[in-house]
Amino acid sequence: MAEQPPLILTLQLDEPAFAYFNALRQAHFPANINYLDAHLTLFHHLPNTPAVSGLLEEVAVRQSIISLEVSAVIKLGRGVAYKMQSPALTALQEYLKQQWQPWLTPQNRQGFRPHITIQNKVEVETANQLYEELAAAFSPFTAKGVGLSLWEYRGGPWHKVRDYNFRNI
Fold first, then answer.
1. Model-level pTM greater than 0.70?
2. SS3 category, 132
């Protein structure tokens, strides 16, 4: 039997925030390696097991929409991202981290620094130029996390397994 591809868990953004970040990503991420829409990753490389999807079903039905503060433009070395802050998102990620502790890779065990990457894998000078441009015009704003998306990683583009929408309260 073939081994199942690992899973990636992301936060779904409300439509206006998704459109904003995705337009920036389409404009600034190198097109030849931009396989994905804008996203906020919660976990990389989870096991492809029913225990993962089962917990997500339970969590989604009791989780209300999450308020996110888009608090800064940040440098990633060879890229640029938007820093996100949310006590509710941090608490959700920590809860899931505790439940999945035995399966977590070193990357998933690190501290959680939520962000949305809009540029990566470019020359440092190119990244610095975009950072300066975006930071000069930046004012903090809010967005919403409206659910979770589970993806299979097969070495290139991600393949969506399922969305788990939060209750609308």
1. yes
2. helix
